[in-house]
Amino acid sequence: MADNSLFISKYTPNDFHAYHSLVMDDDVMRYISGTGLSEEDAQAKFNSILSINAQQGSLGYFKVYNHQNTFIGDCKLERSKDSCPALEIGYILKKDFWGQGYGTEICTRLLALAHQVAPTLDVVAIIDPENTASKKLLKKCGFRSFFIGVENGLATEKLIHSKISK
Domain total for the chain? Predict the structure, then answer.
């Protein structure tokens, strides 16, 4: 997928350095894992990402570059791990690119891809309830909250972009 401002493509084995540069940052990972990942943990997660990408066709984990070909973050669109049939989106941006509209553009692009791949499925996003920036971005893109609580020992908020009219 490409347009004038973002280029998004699936991770390949050669992308570990870029991935690690993103997930090692404590501030970036604050609402995801609580802290940046060690190289060993990042490698394990990256291997999982490559495995998912090999199995998912159009879905998976994607690296994101801006129009200047600078790696700015990543995103995902995958089948929800919950029992309900849905797709799940996620995104992470390097700090230098926060607040510049990239998150909204990534979300919009993932929703468009979700509509192409599975037009009848709802799309969910799972965030830390304290991540007000992501909550605001998701609501701007048409998501609404449907769960706030604790899941797997972590504070969790789930939002849904429903295919059924509200």
Answer: 1
Strands of the sheet containing 71-79, edge to edge, are: 6-10, 60-66, 71-79, 86-93, 122-127, 154-161, 144-151
Q: What is the CATH number of the domain that holds 155?
A: 3.40.630.30
Q: Which residues lie below 8 Å from residue 101, measured CB to CB, with a gap of 6+?
A: none
Residue ranges in the chain whose pLDDT is less than 50:
1-3, 165-166
- pLDDT for 165: 46
How far does CA 105 lie from the centroid of its chain? Answer: 12
